[in-house]
Amino acid sequence: MLRNPFRELDAKNLLHSSDLLKKQNDYRKIVNQRLNVVMIVTVLLFMIIAARLIDIQIRQQEDYTNKLEVYTMKKQVSSTPRGQMLDAQGKEIVQTISSISITYFPTEHASSADQWELAVKFAKQFPVPTDDLTLRDLQDAYITLHTTENGINDQANYLLSEAELKLSDAQIYQLKLERITKEMIDAELDDVTRAAWLVYSAMEVHSQSSHTRVILEDIDEETIAYLTEHKEDFPGFDVDFTSWKRQYPYGDTLRDVLGQVTTSKQGLPAELMQYYHAKGYEMNARVGKSGLEQQYEELLSGSAKTNMIKYDEEGNPIFTETNPGKKGYDLQLSININLQQKIDEILKKVMQEYGGKGNRPDMDRLFVTLMNPNTGEVYAMSGVLRSDDQLINYASGNYLEGYTPGSVVKGATVYMGLNEGVVSKNEMIYDAPMQIKGTPTIASFQNHGNVDAVTALKVSSNIYMVNIAIRLAKSTYIPNGPLFIDDAAAVFKLMRNYYSMFGLGVLTGIDVPNEQLAFKGSNETPGNLLYFSFGQYDNYTPIQLLQYVSTIANGGKKIKPRLVSGAYGVNSDSLVYKNTTEVLSTISGSLEHLNTVKEGFRACVTSNYCGTAVKAAGHEIAAKTGTAEVTIDGHASTNASLIGFWPYQQPEVAFVCSAPTSSNTTTATTRLQDNICTTEIMPQVIKAYYGE
Questions:
Q1: How far is residue 642's CA from residue 623's CA, in Å, rounded to a whole number?
Q2: Cis ω on the peptide bond leading into residue 647 (within 30° of 0)?
Q3: What is the pLDDT of residues 351-388, one digit of tens each?
Q4: I need a labelling partner for 670 at 20 to 30 A (CA). Which of 20, 69, 115, 646 fits?
Q5: pTM assigned to the model
Q6: Which listed residue (243, 264, 334, 407) is catalytic?
Q7: What is the rounded CA–CA span in Å between residue 435 and residue 437?
Q8: What number of other Cβ atoms are within 10 A of residue 473's Cβ?
């Protein structure tokens, strides 16, 4: 009989059944224990959560209610008064005075249709000037407001064909603008509609902005009274008694340098929008858009005032101040406003007497700037422009416009020649006309015979400067022969490097925006190289010439010119910003060579080569004249310049006078005599400086 193996296996399993049962019981016990732990932990967590909820709902209910209110509440931002500008003696030259404005902050859930209806109502009641509306503004209004005969607003789609209406939105809008004429606008938009559009645009501008919209500025008492009495008829409109405006006690004096501030309607300038956005400015914030107002915006602007906004049951905003803001800092300038006005008057008087008359038909602008050569502090910056027989203050022309300077650059040329070792101080070079093949005759205004370095500056020898350029090029002058210069570009580069050490041909760094570099010639031929050596090629701005002569005066330090000395706290003497003297670089080479240049400048005055009137002014003046031949409207004219400093031994004042196209005389001798900077302007300026 066969054995059943499975029966034996079952018998063995039965022998261990108690062990298996015991093991299963152990597993159940472990599972039950773990479930109990999970349940206990879960209960504890629920208890903690319940306790926290009770704490939030009962103990911290008020705190969280306030936080919720803050997160959901709107914020209103308003500008604070701008800092003022003072002259060196503390006289206010730019003031911030209070002004009253009508502002608008949208009511809760105000729709565009509601705002347009309100704008029309406002325009009918209050005088809204529409002079600022441009053609583009009116075209936008025409597109937005145009309705068909059935009263349907079709956004001026009737101007386009069906095919054109399938173009992109930008293309469609551009086509509409091109087809809307002034006649169409005049036929459809009356005066009230135009005024309403101006108000509506101000109400809607940057609708997501938290900034209060300014609708009318500098309003009269009658308007204030009416709006105050009928405020419920104009929801969202209010009278702002904390508004401000700029005032200029000295009129147009230095106005183009001081700069301008945008209005609330203009807001951020388009070209600076990203910059100001990054700094947290609102779209319609008032900011400096030119001059010192722009350069020192962050000091002048202060910090904005903020209000938290709730709405009442009727949807009208209720304002609660959360940050009073802070007025901007006051700027103190190095300008002496009394001296500035005197120099302005001198330039205007000279222009009235000589501009456009006699041998000065093209004289239409004059410039003078005085600066401390040791610190860079600008004492006065004056300019006048004659336009249509009107005289306009144009001080900014000192750093915005460049002119061919003529012989005033010879100081840098002599220094370069001495420092490069191609001439020595006492070496004599014969001054007589030079005949170079293929080049017009080069000569000084008269033949001076043998001249050394000092004499060359005194008498303004062109020939001495040309010889320096030829020697730098390692060439030789052969009368009536060609001039062989292998690499004129390399000599141009060397000369420009020297000139730039003094400030010529580079930005001075003056603390105003948009300083200009002026023209730099690119036709670097041997002939132009020779003319370059005595100031008849590259152009320089008056402020560059001033930095150049200051570098000579102070012993070789190129100082950054500055109009602002510092900034002060509100209603206090606490200095919050100091614009310190900044030495941009120091010229390389021997100071002995620089002293030679200074000797030449002083000799120009003492010998009357800088004009008898300049010598008669006294005060140990050292100076250099410049006359440059230019062409204007097809005929010859002359730029006149005078640069210098005083007193000679310890310079305290450096100056530049520039009179572009100020004479049309033909001979070199007459041009020198007609240099209006030496004969008329600077002698009077020096007397004005000393109150004589």
A1: 7
A2: yes
A3: 999 999 989 999 999 999 999 999 999 999 999 999 98
A4: 646
A5: 0.81
A6: 407
A7: 7
A8: 22
